[in-house]
Specification:
Layout: H1 16-48, H2 68-73, H3 80-86, H4 90-109, H5 113-129, H6 142-155, H7 165-169, H8 172-176
Helix pairs in contact: 1-4, 1-6, 4-5, 5-6
Length: 181
């Protein structure tokens, strides 16, 4: 019987733990980019009415109200009256769109991860409270999973891998105010 030995010229981490750590960094970077796209796409679709969740006539640039349809028609449960009362208001539309754009851009660039995690999680939890209880589970839905993922992304410095997080952290303003990381 002949044994074939393959020579490996690639430099890999010396231990399995280091290899897992490196792989985990890239998995979190991929999840950060994916979730950033979810937020940014929602912003773009509502802004321009690209026909996915928002028809062209409902686009914000065409005078539509990004919060009106969901909050007026889908809000239910203990907070329904509150959400119905703010549906389509200028301030709610503006804050909602700014949140979607800001969180999306921050996640894609890998900067401001702490602010993105807090504001994104707040936005997601509010969306979760608008439909209590969720349709397919007594309490859990994707909004809470995404909120938890945002916390994990911020806590693991996921913006440093395939992002500008390390550069961002070196800026004098961010060094002075570390909550901007």
């Amino acid at each position: 019987m002949t044994t074939i030995t393959h020579r490996n010229d690639h430099a890999f981490p010396a231990t399995a733990a280091m290899s897992r750590e490196g792989a985990a960094r890239y998995v979190f970077a991929g999840l950060r980019l994916a979730l950033g796209w979810v937020f940014l796409w929602a912003f773009l679709d509502k802004l321009f009415g690209l026909g996915y969740a928002t028809p062209a006539k409902g686009a914000w640039v065409n005078g539509g109200h990004p919060t009106l349809g969901f909050l007026k028609n889908s809000a239910k449960g203990p907070f329904a009256d509150f959400y119905h009362s703010i549906a389509g208001t200028t301030w709610a539309d503006t804050l909602f769109m700014a949140g979607l754009a800001g969180v999306g851009v921050a996640l894609i660039l890998g900067i401001g991860m702490r602010i993105a995690a807090i504001s994104g999680a707040a936005l997601l939890v509010m969306m979760w409270t608008a439909v209590l209880p969720p349709a397919t589970n007594p309490f859990m839905d994707d909004h809470l999973i995404y909120a938890g993922l945002l916390a994990a992304l911020a806590l693991t410095s996921a913006g440093n891998t395939l992002g500008l997080g390390a550069w961002w952290a070196k800026l004098p303003l961010v060094k002075r105010l570390p909550w901007l990381r």
